[in-house]
Amino acid sequence: MSEDASLHADVAEILLTEDEIQAKVRALGAQIGADYAGRPLTLVSVLKGSLPFMADLMRAIELPVRIDLMEVSSYGGSATESSGLVRILKDLSASIADEDVLIVEDIIDTGLTLNYLVRYLRGKAPASLRICTLLDKPARRLVEIPVDYTGFTIPDQFVVGYGLDYGELYRNLRYVGVLKPEVYSEVAGG
Ligand code: IMP
């Protein structure tokens, strides 16, 4: 496949290759499929960053699954810092009462977003509620989050790709990488 150099030019380092991500997603899907065998499962994903992970993970789970999507935004904060105050932009479209629910997240950083979401979803009385995240940055955690399935634990670096953005760009990279320092400062300053 031909690649437009301008999409990749801002990337300083690839942390996780496309092959590594795909292998991990298949392994997570197999594990989830085994754990929930015989139980109908509802996957709840949070837009927009979890979109590629959700799309790949749901196809790696060999079970009948329902999916639902939420979109949240944090009040305030900056392009690289979460503020912890969460606003729901798009709510669930169906009841999850008495369902086995698995939250599908792109990354857990401070944990503030997910902490809010877990409380919110618990209030909807699911039969069970678990968390699957592709990436975990435990070094930055401010609240304790019980994570049931983790793809990769990564160091305290701001990463882009495979759904993750910086200034709404780079979500379509098939790998996860770190941008060149001057790119971060350009957007932050502008
Ligand atoms: P938290 O509330 O600090 O755990 O942040 C959760 C959200 O912040 C994630 O769902 C991402 O949208 C965003 N985020 C956190 N770290 C990164 C990163 O390294 N790259 C891109 N987005 C990030």
Which helices and strands, and how do they pair?
Layout: H1 5-8, E1 11-16, H2 18-35, E2 41-47, H3 51-60, E3 65-74, E4 86-90, E5 100-108, H4 112-122, E6 128-136, E7 149-153, E8 159-160, E9 176-179, H5 181-189
Parallel strand pairs: 2-3, 2-5, 5-6, 6-7
Antiparallel strand pairs: 1-9, 3-4, 8-9
Bound molecules: inosinic acid.
Characteristic terms for this protein:
3-stranded antiparallel beta sheet; 30% strand; Rossmann fold; 27% helix; binds inosinic acid; 9 strands; alpha/beta
**N/C terminus separation:** 34 Å
The largest beta-sheet arranges its strands as: 4-3-2-5-6-7
Which value, in Å, is the CA radius of gyration?
17 Å
* Secondary structural class: alpha/beta
The total tally of domains equals 1
Any ligands, ions or cofactors bound here, and which?
inosinic acid
With helices defined by DSSP (H or I, 4 residues minimum), what is the helix count? 5
**Biggest β-sheet, characterized?**
6 strands, mixed
Fraction of residues in β-strands: 25-35%
Stretches where pLDDT falls below 50 for ≥5 residues?
none
Question: What's the average pLDDT?
Answer: 92
CATH architecture level-2 label: 3-Layer(aba) Sandwich
**CATH class type:** Alpha Beta
CATH topology: Rossmann fold
Instruction: Please provide the ordered H/E string of secondary-structure elements.
Output: HEHEHEEEHEEEEH
- The number of E-state strands comes to 9
Helicity level = 25-40%
General form:
globular
